[in-house]
Known about the structure:
This protein is mainly alpha-helical. It is 86% helix and 0% strand.
Amino acid sequence: MLSILTLISRVLGLIREMTKAALLGTSALSDAFSVAFMIPNLFRRLFAEGSISVAFIPTFKEFLLEGNKEKIRDFLSSILTFLSFFVSLTVALGVLAAPFVVKLFNMEEYSETVFLTRMMFPFLAFISIAAFFQGILNSVRIFTPAGFAPILLNVATILCAYLLSPFMKNPARAMAVGILIGGFLEAAIQFPFVLRQGFRFSFTSLKKALSNPGTKAVLRLIGPTIIGMAAYQLNDLVSTALAGHAGPGVVSSLQYSLRLQELILGVFAVSIGTVLLPDLAESAKTSRWDMYNRRLIGAMDIIALITIPITFLCLSQGETLIRLLFQTRNFDSQSVALTLSAFRFHIPGLFFIALNRILAPAFYAQSDSKSPTLAGILSFVVNIILAAALVRPMKGAGVALALSTASAVNTILLLVFLRRNPNIAVGKALRSALVYTLKLAVFSCIAAVPLHFLNPLLLGYFSGRGRFISYGIPFIVSTIIFAAIGILLLVITKDKQAKAVAGMFKRKRN
Length: 510
């Protein structure tokens, strides 16, 4: 269910990017919106998703296992108070510091970028409270409201872009209004479900909030993570700043490329990681390491089953896909070329980024935030060195290649650090993942060969019949052929993971 809702959300997110492409293209104003939204979004990942996954859920799980309702209420009240104070302070400082931060990006539309940044910074407050509600619900294995919430964000942004653009200075400001409304709705939609579970909390004094044992435990876990997450966010900031110096449109082309990558990540990797964390946390707290290992190995194999074939399909059909989704009057052939050059180097990193979304919760479940933090810092160093070296000769493609390489380094480091716990069967998991990945890569190559010869014929036949027919039908036909060959190979070899996934859907129907 979470994957289905996330699929809807990511498709709507893609439509949101298509809306931006139609209204702004890869213009300087598009770059301005991309940077302005990225800045509060970076803090969101630090205060919202990062904190909730790293510290809140494992700590809250301990309170739930203890079962003392009074302690649970005090803990939730303390976290709400601390989070509200800290995020409000950050929003105020962000609004004041916007002119200085935006200067780092060398934006053509400097004044408009500052205005949009200030306009969207309160989004951080809404989304942080939404993440707090999500953490409560996920801890008791309720995932649907959190899966539905981002749908509202995307719908609000799309509607505001079209409905408010005629009444505002530019479409970027209309989309910014949609971001704020959507952030508020993300929090509002989850609150009734929290109350329905019987959880009650209120604001308390900041002194009482900081003295709560649960808050102290969360802060101890978050401490190292803030450094690692800050390095990760700085990663994005520096990469974007480097891309901003590579020429107009490069920042936007990277954002469009990442949106395609995140569509796949969000549907599968994020969903699996979200559901996996509470299970791993409970297994670790109760020392059920056999269950822990089975869950982790199964998740890694499923990630390979999903991401490896999609990577090969995207490498084969990248240009067709980009033209289908984004090409308009404002998103011309030059925009397609810019986005494609980044996408070809972003998509090989898909497998490693997805694995990182699975491996990081394996540490958080053990209340270990230091290991993924160290891995994040080291991979950040690799990314920035490579991006700085490659951005001049390769422009956006160099920044994308640096990110993919750094993601692979991060995966290797996480696996090395995971070996420190003798209860975790890292060797078995790694052998399983490597053999299975190689098998899927071979199958994907075989499935992609016919597309190399068929795709030009399909594009030629349907050319000149409108964007959705000219590129949509060739893409759908190529995808069906690729999937059919891949599934046939899996059936012939009696693939266990594919059989398990098919069995799961069969049970759901029954």
